[in-house]
Amino acid sequence: MKMVKSLLLGSAAGLVAVVGAQAADLPVKAKPVEYVKVCSLYGAGFYYIPGTDICMKMGGYVRAQYYYNTGATPSSGLMFGPNNAQQSNLVGFSNDTVMRTRAVWTVDTRSQTEWGTLRTYVLMGFNHDTPGGSSFGGNAAALYATRGFIQFAGFTFGKAQSFYDLYSTPAVSYFGIAASDTGDAGVMLAAYTAQLGNGVSATLAVEEPRRMAIVNTAINNSFTLGGPVNNDYGTVKWPDVVANIRVDQAWGSFQVMGAVHDASAAYTAINGANCLAATGATITGSMVCGTASSAVGFAVGAGATINTDFISRGDKFAFQVNYTEGAMRYAIYTPSGGGSMAMFGGGNSLGLGFFTDGVLANNGSMELTKVFGVNASYDHLWTPSLKTSLYGGYFNIDYSANATAAMCANVSGGANTISGATNCNPDFNFYYIGSRTQWNVRPDFYMGVDVLYHHLETGFNGTATYTALAGAPRPTGVYKIENQDAVSVTFRVHRDIVP
Question: What's the number of CA atoms in the CB half-sphere (13 Å) around residue 240?
Fold first, then answer.
């Protein structure tokens, strides 16, 4: 009996030892996997960042676009800049055809606080145009960031779309057409938006100045084609002040807006002195510099986007009207710098107009340039996946009698300029009309074609001598200054990474 007990006890001890050894070899139980959870608070595409209460959406797009007769820089448009379409070359050769690839990545994060939603938004991408601005190739692919802002308790800080904007050109056109819309570029700003109820809001913002150029006629002045005019803007003393009142309801949106802009010049010249010499050169003889000439420009506008389901379901009508004095870029945001809208026609034919915020006359008076502009569009849905837009714009640029006299009395020659105009009148206007048709293959993928007609009406009607740059495609000679026309076409393929 003792022997049996000993055997049983020994067997039990051995079994316990073996089980204990096997248990020691088992892996430690893993922590629960923290799966990414969908965040439904802010719409489709948002997820909680693991371990936080922050919802994030990552998106963007890839786009290929092909242009005909739009110039070396599609973003600036057909008639802007020194290298335009083939028939309008000013300095060097550009190309009838330009190809563009653009890729964008966006990050949108949001979370709740006791003061409402806290949001950050970033947009980064790259753009590559080819050929672009030269005879033998294009520009290198360029990285850029056009959005980076924080929104909190009604405030917006950073780089965002201007609060002056309402009419959206990308919504109806594939071209960088003239409008007040800051579009892809955005502006630096700080703003506060008050929600007044029933879809009504009011915003007050300080924004980076929308500057064009100021012509100081006491400094060597020339009617330079394509390039920037003589620019004597003063340093930035204060930002632009922008305000709007906006209504957003089921029928659409309506907005009235205004902006105040510092249009002060840097120097005032006396006795024809070149005051820019004061920045470094020695002032001799009768050269005397006066104080800076102060001026305040402004812009006012109104616009609406209306859902016209009563005409056809899904259709929209949009417009915006702007009037500016000394603040041209609130009507014409593109081009970005002071210059000329110039275009050669067939033979010795030329049309032009000059973009400025003001003209500083010899007597020191600041003559602010007046601009009236209007944009309008109609977007029609043929089917849920096929739509066509018809859009247009008209812009009138008016110089005062004093500004005209000062500009025309102080013209010096030079390469790529006109002189000896038989009718020196810087007033001009231009308009365009276009149509885009887009096929949405699926909600995140579309293809489309856009056709655009431009018409420039120059105020210089007459003749002038054009002095060409060495090697420029157009020869020096007497040119007829007259109205010009052009037609451009573009085809786009676009895929959203996340809508």
Answer: 28
Q: For residues 441 and 126, give the distance between their C-alpha atoms in angstroms, rounded to a whole number.
A: 25
User: Checking phi first, is residue 434 left (phi over 0); if not, alpha (psi -120 to 50) or beta?
Assistant: beta
Can you spell out the DSSP letters for 32-61?
A: PP----B--SS-TT-EEPTTSS-EEEEEEE
In angstroms, the CA 180 to CA 168 distance is 9
Nearest-CA neighbor of 144 among 185, 107, 97?
Answer: 185
Beta-carbon neighbour count of residue 120 at 10 Å? 17
Residues 6+ positions from 79 with CB-CB distance below 8 Å: 71, 88, 341, 342, 343, 430, 454, 456, 484, 486
- 368 - beta bridge partners? 358
Q: Encoding tokens for residue 394? A: 């008209």
Residue located via tokens 């996340």: 498
What is the chain's length? 499
Please state the domain extents for the chain.
57-498
Q: What's the Cα-to-Cα distance from 141 to each of 76, 102, 128, 246, rounded to whole Å?
A: 17, 9, 4, 38
Q: Count of alpha carbons within 13 Å of 19, Cβ hemisphere only?
A: 6
Question: What is the DSSP secondary-structure string of 171-191?
Answer: TT-SS--SSS--TTT-EEEEE
For 7-26, how does the pLDDT look when each residue is reduced to its tens digit (9 = 90+)? 444 554 554 444 454 545 55
User: Per-residue pLDDT tens for 395-428?
Assistant: 999 999 999 988 888 776 777 788 888 999 999 9
At the fourth CATH level, which superfamily is domain 57-498?
Porin (2.40.160.10)
